[in-house]
Amino acid sequence: MMIHIGLTGWGDHDDLYQEGTPSRNKLRIYSRHFPLVEVDSSFYAIQSPGNYQKWAEMTPDDFSFVIKAYQGMTGHLRGKQAFASRGEMFQTFLESIQPVIRAGKLKAVLFQFPPWFECSRKNVDLLRDAKDQMGAIPVALEFRHTSWFSPAMMDRTLKFMEEEGWIHSICDEPQAGNGSVPTVLHSTHPDYCLVRFHGRNVGGWLDKGNPHWRDVRYLYRYSEEELLQWSENIRHLQQSSKEIGLLFNNNSGGDACANAKQMMQILGIRYESGDREPEQLDLFDQLGN
């Protein structure tokens, strides 16, 4: 059983970098600490194949990526669509990530659907279409509307995900009504299970009237007791998936890195890459030209 721990994005984790570290060096430094990262820039814009090629080349052979699906693919996009058709949008996205696939570094494409994406026949059809568009690419599914895991629908939702081949992205997040989902400890794919830690800041999650809402939405540091409980949850998940990825997204206050390293300690995991450069080289990576 493999457990890989990482963070969402690599640019904003000040614990990892000396002041003044150029952005271009951060992923290389990040990859010495964690074997997994979530690419979230792909949600806001489909990245160029050149970016993915660069990221694949600057990380160790055993490093891997979870790439977030573009917002137009999940129904988040507001305003004019840049593509002539849904098919063209998916095809452009698939072409963009090919360098990561060729490098053998793609764990999954993450489809995180919005809070207004409720359980309905229309949306089930959209999920089926998305899965068809992605072909054989491993895809993870994360809901934000509680209706998918209501008592009446939970078993049907999980069965659907199993039958359609979706990887379950399990959430630890604030329990804040319809715009959040419970933690459902059920893996739907034999090869991979994803867990994303969003924190438990209910007030920040709901306070969308705050102009700085996004700065406090994920403001939370998990306690040792909470992480110890999650170590038990992970042991449970190990029974049904060959590999588990843990991604910490609680970074509004810079807590994600510390919590991820704390979880590594609790689970007795020490990441060692065969391609890892000597620690003494860190100083030169931190310096600009």
TrEMBL record:
Domain of life: Bacteria
A Pfam family matched in the record: DUF72
Name of the protein described by the UniProt record: Uncharacterized protein YecE (DUF72 family)
